[in-house]
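Task 17 of the worksheet. Students: predict the tertiary structure of the chain below and write it out as structure tokens. Keep your answer in the requested format; marks are given for formatting as well as content.
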Amino acid sequence: MLLWLVSGIVAPAAAQTSVTNSTDGAVAYVSSANCPGSAFKRTFSVSQSLTVADVNIGVLMAHDNRPDLRMYLVGPDGTRVQLAANNGNAANHNVNVLFDDEAANAISSYTTDPAAATSTTVVPPYAASYRPTQALSAFDGKAAQGIWTLEICDTNNNSINGTFYQADLTITGAAAADLSLTMSVSPSSPVAGATVTYTLTVTNASASSLTANGVVVGVNLPTGVSYSGSTATGTSYDPTTDNWTVGTLAPGQSRTLTITAQVIASSGATLTATAEVLASSATDSDSTPGNGSTSEDDYASASATVSGTRTAGTAPTLVCPAGSASFSWNNYSWAAGSTSNSYALAGIGTLSFTLSNPGQFLNNATYGGQSPTRQNVVTGGLATARYSLMELVDLANQTQEATTTISLGVALPGVQFTIFDVDYGTSQFADKVTITGTRNGVTVYPTLTNGLANYVSGNVAYGDQLSGDTQANGNVVVTFSAPVDTIVLRYGNHSLAPTDPGQQGIAISDFTLCKAESRIAVSKSSTVLSDPVNGATNPKAIPGAVAQYCILVSNAGYTTATNVTASDPLPAGVAYVAGSIRSGTSCSDAATTEDDDAAGADETDPFGASLSGTTVTGTAGSLAPGASFAFTLRTTIK
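Model answer:
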């Protein structure tokens, strides 16, 4: 019969567990070549989670020739220690011994004969203690929990066998704390816009033998909520790092943190917060701080589901003042497996795609072969299937992301496109798509519109339900309503995915692109430079005064303007000062001399200016978006 007894704390610094196996059995001959492979075995199941600090094992058996015996102890991880190696002489009988590293004498000096062992012999205590052939300290620092095995071989074929009666395995654990973490959320079914409260409690078990210092808990709030505040009495929580600094926890002591947050996700979204003990000065008896294991008691999570019936969102209307152009994958090719392609689009310019993936792009014939590739199996619910760019990936973990960079060449006033199949596969993947844009290096954020199988938070879409290949449920519409020249799409997983996600994919559908236009703006200013009375000191606009005019021409649009011309008649009551026209990029730096006619090299250096009658004209061969040119002239007030 297999019995195990777990003792309490035997000293302030350590815990101890003892396991007894008293299943009687005959120990017969095993050749030396087959020892310990064919040995007589007895096992011990250790259920308590300890880090080994010391191991002792006592063995009781009857035998008429003890030198025939070899014994081994094998730990749960396979570590094997030889206890006895054919020790003693032919006159030595029976075994009633405790193997203990701290014993005074080695097992090789075990020459006494204990009384004959029987099934009624009471042990422990054992008749003698000896150090084993190999030190039991080989188990120190290892996990005690699991199956331990005692192996006994009778290596002499002399018809002298023995009978095993009992063995006692005693393990002393290293001093440890036992930290555990719990988390709850209220309410569990909030409405969008409501406040939820996450409550975390970390406890050092009362049976712990150590006080834990330097305790830190890492908290991960779901992306579908926005942090509002926290209460951490006697401790501190930093919402920037998401770390809860707990400090010291004595045995039996607990600390509690409450975090409030506003729900920003849409109906049907599951909001799961997680937390884990990241640091502690004390060894933990059944968990390891910061290892990310969700099965240990220093990890906790709590989920709330946004109430209401989720509906697919309505995408904003893309407004294109200068008209729009369409980029349809039906009209453009993509070599299977290619990760970079560019396309010329009339009225727009060059549209370029560059893809990268730290994991793998997969090859699946159903979805067009080697990804990335054009396919029409995932259709986004369209009545007539159309081609889209498929990204079928295998990512190694939750943090890896495949990246798609879309360069528009120039800043376009607006862009809209749809991503198909942003969804969730139980125990397989949990799609997460993050979209950002830039214009001249400055970040531009889009508006995302959810489908039934996903929800949106800011510029991130999260799949939380499954969508079929031909369904619209996984669609996410991306709309840029502000000028953008580059779009970056990062595709990976969120926290509902397994540690090593499986195959997953999305498809980028057609684009609507607003055509770029130049927007020329003209402004005029004047300054009195001098007058006959005051000179240049606080001059006034009196007869004889000299006044300077500036015409500033700017391109506030999204594309380069060409052959730009601006003309302005001189006002009545002034006379032009011959040879006074200057040009430049602004009124303050207009210093390039222009002659008064409209001919010569000065007209393209790079700007030109001239006077015809009483009308002054400035010209620029081209004016890039955001660029300006100016020309000044002087007049005398009549």
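Marker's comment: The CA atoms of residues 272 and 321 lie 43 Å apart. DSSP finds no helices and 48 strands in the chain.
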